[in-house]
Amino acid sequence: MGSLKPWARYLLLVVAHLLALSLGAVVLQALEGPPALQLQAQLQAELSTFQAEHRACLPPEALAELLGAVLRAQAHGVSSLGNDSEASNWDLPSALLFTASILTTTGYGHMAPLSAGGKAFCVVYAALGLPASLALVAALRHCLLPVLNRPGAWVAVRWRLAPAQAALLQAAGLGLLVVCVFVLLPALVLWAIQGDCGLLEAVYFCFGSLSTIGLGDLLPGRGRGLHPALYHLGQFALLGYLLLGLLAMLLAVETFSELPQVRAMVTFFGPTGPRTDEDQDGILGQDELALSTTPPDPPALEQTIPASEQTPAC
Q1: Long-range contacts, 150-154 (Cβ 8 Å, 24+)
Q2: pLDDT of residue 301
């Protein structure tokens, strides 16, 4: 495939991406289509039963208008079914969680500004806050990545691994650490605290948060009557989890992107011009790793000089 023209390589990449999108759509349609149809049929049956029992006192038009108002309010995060601990969506912890979801591009979706001023402020706040957040994450990544590279360099020296093997081991170790600390452990905590959330749903929520998908179908503290203090404490904990977890996820992605195999794939689809020094540096080509991955050469034996030829010290 090395003889392909650059335009053919880009076309191959686009076709592969479209095939991946199509495959994902077909799988989700097969998995989610039947449950959605079943839920829709169940809802229609319950609605028909309710209308048959209360048609005399509640006309169908009035019921449809009431359900429409409830659904419109629910789209903005306002629910008439919540208890007193969840009645306010714009208290300080909820507002902090909403701003964190903007700056981390999570966007859980259940909270949205209602006023025109709130929408305008969100636009300006995101336009100024997102670049600042990216700059902060880039600075933290620059400081933390050398620290995280030191264990891999030590293992490479001790086990005398090749640079490619050491890079793969380091990426696998960091990925396993991120999965255990920022996905599995928070999922277990969420599963234990929130009784109506299964373990798979908790893992799904944690991964969706760290990958900034934020579909909004799962929110911590919803669906179960929690004490107000515990509910607000959970929101503050989620705020810190989003900031630290996103940084950890970016460090893991950065480490995997510097693997020789990944860089070879990027080079294959990249331009065919001369490579720069930055492109030629791999994950083990950084200063803090390049000096420690190669075992030091044994010291050269000093030549023995006869005593008669040595220069006397002054």
Answers
A1: 150/288, 150/292, 152/289, 153/284, 153/288, 153/289, 153/292, 153/293, 154/292
A2: 40
